[in-house]
Amino acid sequence: KKDLDKLALDSYLEVAAEKLGYKNVDELKKNLNIKP
Hints:
This is Transposase. By secondary structure, the chain is mainly alpha-helical.
C-alpha cells in the first residue's frame, strides 16, 4: 500500500510540476522544501 501511495503522490507531483512550469519533480520538491 505504501508503494501505491508513493506512486500516486509522485505522479501527482509530476503533473503539478508540469502545470506550474517546473522542469521536473525535483525542482518542485526543492521549492516546496524552501518554503516554511
